[in-house]
Amino acid sequence: MKQMLVTGGCGFIGTNFIRYLLEDSDFQGRIINVDSLTYAGNPENLADIQERFPERYCFVKADICDLEALETVFERHAIDTVCHFAAESHVDRSIVRPDAFIRTNIVGTFNLLQMAKKHKDRILLFHHISTDEVFGSLGKNGVFTEETPYRPNSPYSASKAASDHLVRAYHKTYGLPITVSNCSNNYGPYQFPEKLVPLMILNALEGKPLPVYGDGKNVRDWLYVKDHCRAIWLIMKKGKRGETYNIGGNSEVENIRMVEMICDLVDERVGKPETGSRRALITFVKDRPGHDRRYAIDFTKLKETLHWYPEESLSTGIRKTLQWYLEHREWVNRVRSGEYQAWIREHYG
Ligand code: NAD
Ligand code: DAU
Questions:
Q1: Does the annotation mark 133 as catalytic?
Q2: 245 tagged catalytic
Q3: Residue to probe by mutation, ligand 2, list 91, 133, 186, most atoms within 8 Å of CB
Q4: HEC states along 150-201?
Q5: Is 15 in the pocket of ligand 2 (CB under 6 A)?
Q6: 191 lines ligand 2 (CB under 6 A)
Q7: Is there a catalytic annotation at residue 156?
Q8: pLDDT in tens, 200-229
Q9: Are 139 and 79 in contact (CB under 8 A)?
């Protein structure tokens, strides 16, 4: 893998993945990062990477729904590997405005597959990043395995399910070498503060209400983003072509427990306010429509065949994440105020 097209590299997981590949892994090749820079994409995340690895990192501002732009990327660069992160990723947004999810997650993935098929003679792998949400919702017991039937419940998860099926179909029909990974909830550096963990960390630090949906007893499985990146790279190198791998954190927790844990850690790290524990900021709000009750991932296949296991526990991972947000208040301010969009306009038009 010498020339890797990474889509959505300016988002949360994409940024961490590019950093991991160039800084920490045995990847020797070059990365072409294609990102259209939506509200969730911030090229400032990788500004130092651009300076430190000018020969091995290149950014192209392009929309994966723009087939002509993709044609140009494939013509200019001898891409042999695709790692596809680009997506609309936030469930709440998909409930209010599903259009962009259908466009990017389904049509965008289709375009990339068409490009990979066109250049199949040089494509070694198309790796597709997906989610455990495609499997739907679990009751008190049970886990998602690679064989669990798809039952997506939100426009977001339905659009991701459609993209997973397309990727699989391009393998079965056209022999495209693919792998797919379905991962649980990620948290860590560079996550846009609309998602539960960064939102709660920042609101807790600022003494703002902590909105918990419904009764707070929905369960998610949490994985530190660097562990996800390690798993992806391992699957790309050693995973069986045509196969799917579940990735999980072995860290199932009710939302309310997660929020209480964040409150306690913030109290411990920066001191309790005069009014007492930050847990008092927790506010139960109207539930998310179609809110999946529980996710739990069985990642035995990844563990047994590729010997991957998460390195961070929830406690160590959340502490690292809190530390990162404390040290990157300027990043948070720029992302929240949309100031980085001005930087994008200045640099990329
Ligand atoms: P994110 O929202 O932080 O980043 C998405 C990136 O894609 C942004 O940089 C955005 O600008 C870019 N993008 C969006 N539309 C585009 C388009 N049309 N063309 C080009 N670029 C476009 O998302 P994330 O949390 O980093 O998730 C990355 C991938 O991982 C997604 O496919 C998501 O479904 C999947 N995933 C996320 C999680 C999670 O917990 N965040 C868990 C499992 C799987
Ligand atoms: O499971 C993987 C998925 O995890 C990814 O595919 C998605 O891209 C990613 O956004 C994430 O989806 P969730 O909906 O699980 O993540 P979110 O951070 O939005 O919410 C986590 C849980 O917390 C969920 O049960 C809803 C709840 N929640 C969320 C927010 C933002 C709250 O109670 N209050 C909130 O303010």
A1: yes
A2: no
A3: 91
A4: CCCCCHHHHHHHHHHHHHHHHHHHHCCCEEEEEECEEECCCCCCCCHHHHHH
A5: no
A6: no
A7: yes
A8: 999 999 999 999 999 999 999 999 999 999
A9: no
**Residue 296 near residue 221, CB atoms below 8 Å:** yes
Radius of gyration of the chain (CA): 20
Residue ranges in the chain modelled with pLDDT below 70: 348-349
* CA separation for the pair 271, 268 (Å, rounded): 6
Question: Is 109's C-beta closer than 6 angstroms to any atom of ligand 2?
Answer: no
**How many Å apart are CA 85 and CA 20, to the nearest integer?**
15
- DSSP 8-state code for residue 128: E
Please report which ligand is nearest the Cα atom of 144. Answer: 2
Report the residue count for the chain: 349
Among the bound ligands, the one closest to the CA of 224:
1
Domains of the chain as residue ranges with CATH: 3-191+222-251+294-313+338-348 (3.40.50.720)
- What is the model's pLDDT at position 349? 64
Query: Do the Cβ atoms of 145 and 297 come closer than 8 Å?
Result: no
pTM equals: 0.98
